Each structure stands twice: as structure tokens, then as C-alpha cells.
Amino acid sequence: MTLLGLIFLSGLVFFVVDFTRMGTVPYKTIQKQPDIRYTNIPTIFVHGYRGNRYSFGHMLQRFERSQVADKVAVVKVFADGRFTWKGQLGGALNPTIQVLFKKGTANVWAQTEWLHNLLAYLYHEGIPRVNLVGHSMGAVTVVAYCARFGNTPKLPQVAKVVTIAGPFNDFELGRDEREIFSYRLTRKGPEHRTPIYQFLKDNIDRIPKPIDFLNIVGNILPSTRVQHDGSVSSDSSFALAFILQGTKHHYAQALMRGPGAAHSLLHENALVDENIVDFLWRNEKAQP
Q1: Residue 91: what pLDDT?
Q2: Within a 10 A sphere around the Cβ of 25, how many other Cβ atoms?
């Protein structure tokens, strides 16, 4: 075999191993770190439009390596709402669950139904509280889930929500358009409201108990009027602040800047990791 062939074969083997690892459960034991608060509250990670195991796979692997959180399950959700569960919850420290939609192009409303099915199952299994993390359209999905089902009985209470690069005031929540859509934010909110924005605004405060939100926004600092992460405008992502304004919920935000803040790189960004860890799991006494 030639040198080029060996390089190609090595790369192929690495890809196959990495691809397999991203969608599996490592079954490792976490060693407690003094600056981390450990609980048994599962955190559910939801990818975006056409997302896959890579969307959050490496991030969950980094949390595991840092002894911060324990990836305990991979859930594959089918278009009819059925899902397969690989892994187990029992006794894990800061358990994380990776959700993979087999139909990655489904709309937000279908995804919220599927998420409802999963959380109803978790409630049946004795899980009273969960955290939710979503990227891109997945960020809209987790907030829309709260708005649709937040006051529905026999579901876990949502404690914390992390949204990453969410298009909260867009018409097209999935596919990229030739030009990045944006309604300008004013001091009173967006100059115009899209249907998804209006739905979230009208329904998010029906939830009986407050939720803590962390909104992570990317800006690659383009030389254009509309600031964006390459796919979603910053104003659309920051619109979540006005959706939650005047509600019982608690809102915080973090802005990532530069090349590493590109839409599909945010879940590989060390500062994003740090913000998520601080928000979900860091001991308050350990935070600066």
C-alpha cells in the first residue's frame, strides 16, 4: 500500500471510530470536582436543522473528560414519535442525554411533540426535573416546548434552558437563505414580529414556575449592517430577551465574537463550553 493509501485508510478509520463514539454512551464514572455542583437532574441536548451526532457529540465528550457531566443516554427519535433509548440514568452525576432526530428536517412543532413524548417517558421513570439545551432550530424547539407544554401535568419541571444561536424572530427556522434575514431590534423589541416570536411571547409565561435561561449568541463580526453568525442574525437570537421580558423567568445572555462564533462552530467553542458549565453546574462559590 502506498503512503497516500495509508494516510487515507488511517483517516477513514479515525472517522469511523469518531463517528461511532459520538453516538454511543461511554459508561464511565465521573470523579467529583470541587468547583462543580453535582445533581441527578438530566440535561437534554437537542440539535438543529439537519443536525446529527456531531452537533453536540464532541461537547458532551469534553464535559465527560472534564469530569463535569456524565453522558448516560442516546435517544433516537423517529418521525412517528417513537424513540429508542440506549443507556441508563441510575446514579449518574449531572447526567446528559443526547437527542437525535432521525428526520432532521422536521419543523419545530413536530420536534416539540417528540420532545414531549420523551419527557413524558422520563416523568414516568421518576424524573421530576430536567434542563434543556438547544442549538439553532433546536434552541427554538426547547423554548417552544416550554411554551406549549410547560403547564402540562405529568411532565418534568424544566429548571434551566440554554439556547445557542436560536433564530427566535425568523420566518425560516431551518434552511439557510441566500441573505441572512433580520428584523432590527429596538429598545422596545424587534421592529416586526414573526409568527414564532409572537407564539413564544404569548405563551412562555403560562408556565407556573420560573425557568432560568442562558442565551448564547454568535457574531462573526461581518462588514455588513446585519450582524450575524453566518446563518442567524444577532438581532434574531437576542430577540429572546424581549420574549422573556416582563415574565417570571430569569434571563442571562452571552455574546461570542470572531471566527469561532460561526453558527456551526459555537458548539465547538471553549467559551461556550465554559458558559454552559458555569450556568448549569458550577458551584456558585467557585464562580468569579
Answers
A1: 82
A2: 16
Closest residue by Cα to residue 96 from 67, 113, 73, 75: 73
Domains and CATH numbers, the chain: 37-168+181-286 (3.40.50.1820)
Write out pLDDT tens, residues 254-281: 999 999 999 999 999 999 999 999 999 9
**φ/ψ of residue 163, rounded to 5:** -115, 135
Yes or no: say if 279 and 160 are a contact pair by the CB < 8 Å rule.
Answer: yes
* This prediction's pTM: 0.90
Cell of 81: 414519535
How do residues 40-90 score in pLDDT, each as one tens digit?
A: 999 999 998 888 768 899 999 999 999 999 999 999 999 999 999 999 888
Q: Compute the residue count for the chain.
A: 288
pLDDT of residue 123: 97
